[in-house]
Write a structure and sequence with these properties.
About 65% of the residues lie in helices and about 5% in strands. By secondary structure, it is an alpha/beta fold. It folds into three domains: about 1-35 and about 55-380, Up-down Bundle (Na+/H+ antiporter like fold), CATH 1.20.1530; about 385-515, Rossmann fold; about 580-650, 2-Layer Sandwich (Alpha-Beta Plaits), CATH 3.30.70.
Length: about 650
């Protein structure tokens, strides 16, 4: 067991590092690790009874984390999706797939059972990718999660019905169904009572102890306890973990709980995907490659089309329908367990089962890529009729406007800008790609529209050629850069103001055509410092002069910060943070007696903030000579700071 874990973790370390370098999803890396270290390829990992249990825990932790994002009120709001769209998707997909399996020679009962299994999608992959893409609360994300919740219940029922169809159980299916639903209701009621009266008191006591270890232990105990109780009831442990997370989602501690279990979740979920990859016979791709490709395409097309049609019939637009279909088109992890049980009970021929396992694996393998390409795929599939209508409507509303302001991204920052513009009676139009936010804002404001600001035709429709100012207030710098480039292709002269979290990509944005880049964190720090100086009695004009000087020098004074024990060195976009670090020069330091011009510290990627000698700041120029006891304060990414420190102290 320990050797297996060592091989899997070491292989995953290498493969995931490579996949991140080429910007591929880690899920694909874990699946490939399982495929190649398994018994049909390199055969580095032997069969182990403990590995599947650890892998299942990954799904349990993932579903618990997902449940924390869905409070009970949100779950009730999704009931039409869960029981309406979810039931229709499973029934329609199962009937179509069962019919095709029957044509391949399978008995009717086995075809229906396996068709139901193939109708299920991958909860682990879809929920993880939607979360990482920030689409979990979009229209298609809500559709996908709602359907997946219903599928989890169906998966339990299907696994229960395998011995019934095999003739090895004395319980008929019409008795197994209400029994499973009854157990689910009992579990939900029990967890609801615990979340109302017991768990808040426990978390309050643990929080008062100020012990991080106790908080982590309590979170782990809750996850594992709910999974164990669900297992005792004969239900899916992942279902119980989700219900527990959902009920805890309304507590004040949900963010801390999610942060505590994230490391366990990610590692165990990686083991789950590795175990999925190990089930596949790699040699089968060489001997039956065309059959596997045909089955994979058939599964993706049938399930995707069924979901898209159902979502469209329910009144959603075509883009949401196709993106929902793409999210749910793959096979699921529960299907592997179902096919394994069916083969064990002689309900599924071994040759066909191996091909279906490989096809299901391939459909899961391409899902992260499908989700990332979903916007462009959906646009091609529905030929943009709704987008054209949307462009016409937006264009008609903005046709009479000239000299107005365009706001791309209507989050908190965009809304604040809009309020100031409204007070000054300046016309503006806002775009945002969050359907819930647009729906909320559109109820009181007629000038807020749904759309992707990166689309040049949408920027043209809201009158970019007639605009007085474009404000890009999106939260992600990469998205802001794409919006900026699209805007500059349409209008080379309009002033563009870009809001960013920090100034790590300031020069890139300026080079792409931004007239002004406002780093949010640095500006808030600057404002707070200026208020502090005014409250200390400094003259207003002197404080303003300082503020203007900092802005003129591109916030150099504010670059970097001293990191702490809990500080992450990577920002939300995966870029290294700019840190602040002081290097104290000893008597034998290489830099002693050398001028700053000779050392050329900036060439290593750092900024020299100050040189302090006996508590006083020295004037910084090329001739300033360093002495023993000086403190050289640097700002920059960790790697550059380490290289600079090595030069100052050792000359390397």
């Amino acid at each position: 067991m320990f050797a297996n874990l060592l091989i899997i973790l070491a292989s995953s370390l290498v493969v995931i590092a490579i996949f991140r370098r080429v910007q591929l999803p880690p899920v694909l890396g874990y699946l490939c690790v399982g495929l190649f270290v398994g018994p049909t390829a390199l055969d580095w990992v032997n069969e182990s009874e403990e590995l599947p249990d650890l892998a299942e825990m990954g799904v349990v932790f993932l579903l618990f984390s997902l449940g924390l994002e869905f409070s009970l009120s949100k779950m009730m709001a999704l009931r039409k999706v869960v029981f309406g769209l979810g039931s229709l998707q499973v029934i329609c997909s199962a009937v179509v797939l069962a019919g095709l399996l029957a044509l391949l020679g399978m008995p009717t009962n086995a075809a229906l059972l396996l068709g139901g299994g193939l109708a299920l999608s991958s909860t682990a992959i879809v929920s993880k990718e939607l979360t990482s893409l920030g689409e979990i609360f979009s229209s298609h994300g809500q559709n996908a999660i709602g359907v997946l919740l219903f599928q989890d219940v169906v998966a339990v029922l299907l696994l229960t019905l395998v011995p019934v169809f095999a003739g090895q159980s004395g319980q008929a299916w019409y008795l197994a169904l209400p029994l499973t639903l009854g157990k689910t209701v009992i579990l939900f009621v029990g967890l609801l009572m615990a979340s109302r009266w017991l768990l808040p008191r426990l978390f309050h006591e643990v929080a008062n102890s100020h012990s991080a270890e106790l908080f982590v232990l309590l979170a782990l105990v809750i996850v594992l306890l709910t999974a164990w109780l669900t297992h005792l009831l004969g239900l899916s442990p992942a279902l119980g973990a989700f219900l527990a997370g959902m009920l805890l989602g309304e507590s004040h501690y949900r963010h801390q709980i999610e942060a505590d279990i994230r490391p366990f979740r990610d590692i165990l979920l990686g083991l789950f995907f590795v175990s999925i990859g190990m089930l596949i016979d790699l040699q089968l791709f060489a001997s039956h490659g065309l059959e596997i490709l045909a089955l994979t395409l058939a599964l993706l097309v049938i399930k995707g089309a069924v979901v898209a049609a159902l979502v469209r019939v329910r009144g959603s637009d075509s883009e949401t329908a196709w993106r929902s279909g793409l999210a749910l088109a793959q096979g699921g992890e529960f299907c592997f367990a179902l096919m394994a049980q069916m083969q064990h009970n002689k309900l599924l021929p071994e040759a066909l089962g191996d091909l279906l396992l490989a096809a299901t694996f391939c459909s899961m393998l391409v899902t992260p890529l499908l989700l990332r390409a979903a916007p462009s795929i959906a646009a091609r599939l529905h030929r943009k009729p709704n987008q054209e209508v949307q462009l016409e409507e937006i264009g008609a509303q903005s046709a009479a406007l000239s000299g107005h302001v365009l706001i791309c991204g209507y989050g908190r920052v965009g809304q604040s800008i809009g309020r100031f513009l409204r007070q000054e009676q300046l016309a503006f139009i806002a775009l945002d790609d969050d359907p819930v936010r647009v729906q909320e804002a559109a109820a009181g404001e007629h000038n807020v529209h749904y759309g992707d600001s990166r689309r040049g035709e949408l920027l043209a429709a809201i009158g970019l050629d007639r605009a007085r100012l474009l404000v890009i207030a999106v939260d992600k710098t990469e998205v802001a850069l794409n919006v900026l480039k699209a805007a500059r292709q349409l209008n080379r002269d309009v002033p563009i103001l870009v809001r960013t979290r920090d100034d790590s990509q300031r020069e890139e944005l300026r080079a792409a055509g931004a007239n002004a880049v406002v780093p949010e964190l640095l500006e808030s720090s600057l404002m707070l410092a200026s208020h502090a100086l005014v409250m200390l009695g400094l003259p207003q004009d002197q404080v303003q002069k300082r503020v203007d000087e900092v802005r003129k020098t591109r916030y150099r004074l504010l670059h970097g910060f001293y990191h702490g024990a809990q500080t992450s060195l990577i920002d939300s976009e995966g870029q290294p943070k700019v840190l602040l670090h002081a290097v104290s020069l000893g008597a034998d330091a290489y830099a002693c007696g050398r001028p700053l011009g000779e050392l050329a510290l900036e060439a290593l990627g750092v900024e020299l903030q100050s040189v302090q000698r006996q508590g006083n700041d020295l004037k910084l120029d090329a001739s300033t000579c360093l002495h023993a006891g000086d403190a050289v304060v640097l700002s920059g990414p960790l790697e550059a700071i380490e290289a600079c420190e090595s030069l100052l102290l050792g000359g390397r």
